[in-house]
Specification:
Length: 145
């Protein structure tokens, strides 16, 4: 966990594993990290802060549905259940599409990073926080010169 100023925090999780067989690219956060995350979000120093959780694998794809079984984040429901509401965001990669699903009372904002290096698809997210929540986001595209 890293506290950023007085308003925000970032927590990194590891979902990537060496696959048992070539071609398997699913991710798992795992019980140990999920338990640690549950304890972290209850810590007093996170009160009133927006919390950005970074993980490689996507909780769900650009259409808002779980990714393929052998490609997605296996324990995504358990992760999302720990982070309800607009105070939290999950930022992920793995899927080379840039998308955002706003938070609900039951799950956090979901941000797909997309690709910053794939020709014609370069870009990033500008995420603003205020009052201990994700207040605004803007998809930015790099224009070729």
């Amino acid at each position: 966990m890293r506290l950023l100023g007085e308003r925000d925090a970032v927590i990194g999780l590891q979902s990537a594993r060496v696959p048992y067989f070539p071609g398997l690219s699913y991710g798992i956060v795992g019980r140990k990290q999920l338990d640690a995350l549950a304890a972290l979000v209850r810590r007093p120093e996170l009160d009133g802060r927006a919390v950005l959780v970074v993980v490689h694998h996507a909780p769900f794809g650009a259409l808002g549905k779980p990714d393929r079984l052998l490609h997605g984040l296996v324990d995504a429901p358990a992760l999302l259940a720990l982070l309800p509401g607009d105070r939290f965001a999950v930022l992920h990669g793995h899927i080379h599409q840039r998308y955002h699903f706003p938070a609900t009372e039951f799950r956090p904002h979901i941000f797909g990073a997309g690709s910053s290096t794939e020709a014609g698809h370069e870009g990033y997210w500008l995420i603003e926080t205020a009052g201990g929540r994700i207040a605004r986001c803007e998809k930015r595209t790099l224009l070729a010169s």
